Amino acid sequence: MGANRCRLTFDVTARDALRYTPAGLAVSEGEGWHRSMQCEVGRTREVDFRFHWVAMGDVATVMDALPMGAEVTGEGFFAARRKGGRQLQLHLTAVQWHQDEERKAQ
Fold it and tell me: pTM for this structure?
């Protein structure tokens, strides 16, 4: 089995209402926006994309409590949004809110 891990800094741009599975597990879904400068083959490249994310359990509760537009660093893995689908979604397994950095910028 191959590696599938991602660490990504992004802004929370959309979030659905917190819901619960029949087993009582919290689920939060939304969209994120990532912007950065990356080095590729010795050249700087601007990276700018939007993506879907999903979080479960304690991570879902944290994501639900964040203010819209919050900058976070999330860790997780990619999986298809729908069974057999081609569109990917980041499944967050850990998240860190950059609250202190946001306050300094204000």
Answer: 0.87
Assigned token pair, 4 = 């599938």
Residue 102 has pLDDT above 80, yes or no: no
* The two structure tokens encoding residue 13: 């741009």
Hey, which bits of 1-106 come out as E strands? 6-15, 19-20, 26-40, 43-56, 71-80, 88-97
What b/e sequence results for 63-94 when a residue is b if at least 16 CB atoms lie within 10 Å of its CB, and e otherwise? bbebeeebbbebebeeeeeeeeeeeebbbbee
Residue pLDDT, tens place only, 65-87: 999 999 999 999 999 988 888 89
Please tell me the distance from the alpha carbon of residue 39 to that of residue 65, in angstroms, as a whole number.
34
pLDDT digits (tens, 9 = 90+) for 20-47: 999 999 999 999 999 999 999 999 999 9
The residues with which 27 forms a beta bridge, in sequence order, are 19, 56
| Residue burial 21-50, b: 16+ Cβ < 10 Å; e: rest | eeeeebbbbbbbeeeeeeeeeeeeeeeeee
